Amino acid sequence: MGAPTVYGAVLDASTRCIHFHSERDIVAIKFACCRRYYPCFQCHDEAVRHERTPHATRRWPQAEWSELAILCGACHRQLSISEYRRVDRCSHCNAEFNSGCRLHAHLYFDEPQ
Ligand SMILES: [Zn+2]
Ligand SMILES: [Zn+2]
Ligand SMILES: [Zn+2]
């Protein structure tokens, strides 16, 4: 089973993109709306805008957080959303994730009130 395709303005094999490309920006996220992996929400929004029929971004409801929707750019294995929210490094290869991504979590995940 190969690693899933990552769409958007990807810069390198670790899924860094033109928007977020620090040492630790190695995570791609699958979007609930189109089930495609993008490095960040800006990549998703820009790609969608250029499609013939643009679609609205849908965030993951908590009921679906068991979905494998996080791709580690270091080892290209997937984590579930609930797992990703518990860890600060990849549970497969131990690569460190950017803790700053948590500031954007509400753009991807429907957080409980
Ligand atoms: Zn989408
Ligand atoms: Zn991006
Ligand atoms: Zn990994």
UniProtKB/TrEMBL annotation:
Signal peptide: none
Domain CHY-type as annotated: residue spans: 10-95
Assigned keywords, A-Z: Metal-binding, Zinc, Zinc-finger
Single Gene Ontology MF annotation: zinc ion binding
Domain of life: Bacteria
Statement: the UniProt record of this protein carries the keyword Cell cycle: no
InterPro entries: Mito_Tim_assembly_helper (IPR052604), UCP017292 (IPR016694), Znf_CHY (IPR008913), Znf_CHY_sf (IPR037274)
Pfam families, A to Z: zf-CHY
Protein name listed in UniProt: CHY-type domain-containing protein
Species for this entry: Cryobacterium ruanii
Lineage: Bacteria, Bacillati, Actinomycetota, Actinomycetes, Micrococcales
